[in-house]
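2.7 Reproducibility. Because tokenized structures are sensitive to small changes in the input, we list the exact sequence used for LysR substrate-binding domain-containing protein, including any N-terminal residues retained from the expression construct. No trimming or masking was applied before prediction.
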Amino acid sequence: MNAADNLQIWSLIEKLGSGKGITSASIDLDKDLPACTRLIQKLENDLGMKLIDHHRRPAQLTNEAIQIIPAVKKLTKAYSELLDAVESVKSEEALITMSIPVNISRSSYRKSIRLYKKLDPKLKIQVLSDLDHQDLLERKADLVCLPYHPPTDGLMVWPCYEARTVLAAAPAYLRKRGVPTSPKDLSDHSLILRASRHYPMTNELHCGSRSVPLNYREIVFSGDVLSGKEALLAGEGISVDLSISSIEKELKSGLVVQVLPYWSRPAWHVTFAIRRESLSNSRLVKFALWLKERERTNVAIRFDKYRKMGFLR
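Resulting structure tokens (single pass, no recycling of outputs):
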């Protein structure tokens, strides 16, 4: 067989292209070093071109080999996708129950779940809202997205991204109570805050490297996102920790306006978590890691949009 038809050789070349030495690459492929050396030599002979510069230590790819690395990556990725497709066809139907905070964009997750269904058609994903790590340990869900970093006892936790918020109020409220121009002015205002069993309570505001205590006259509502949003739209106070995505339409339409631009509560540290015992569930782990990376990308895109809209720096 022509060496170029051996995908394992191309996987070896890809690893060398990523900066790994041939010894490290051979360990990754679970092959001994002499076997990898022979594979490369055979590929060089079949292709009629040098792939490894043997005069450098550790051995490195030649300029010619470096030029074909993008095509090599496409080949190995396509092969990996083929194996995934075969595995999904072989796999039995399964159900994953996951929880997403209400304060986070639902449309982004819906799109991601629809896309993943194409990768694993027999996997059903049921979405719940606002479960915490204790609910996860009590088996109310298989995977949870959390706005905080939970204790890791019994859990596998993956940090995902930092989420930002803006202060906002209805125009009617500001006409009646005045527009605060600095955080200390909030001592004359009514605030709307998030609260739940493990939700990180807001007690200070940040702007760049500056931080100040959160002042207020009264807290008119403290609780869930939906009720807090209703209080905001009703002109009952200034919301402090509703996510931008949860009030994006209202901000665009003018139903609510940003207050104290660039001041916000401390960023949430959004994480994904499963029970540690679930690490043996390869489909759950694969989905969790895939979703984590996709949402990290989606959030970066959303935040770039919010910066262009003037909500964030």
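The chain is about 40% helix and 20% strand.
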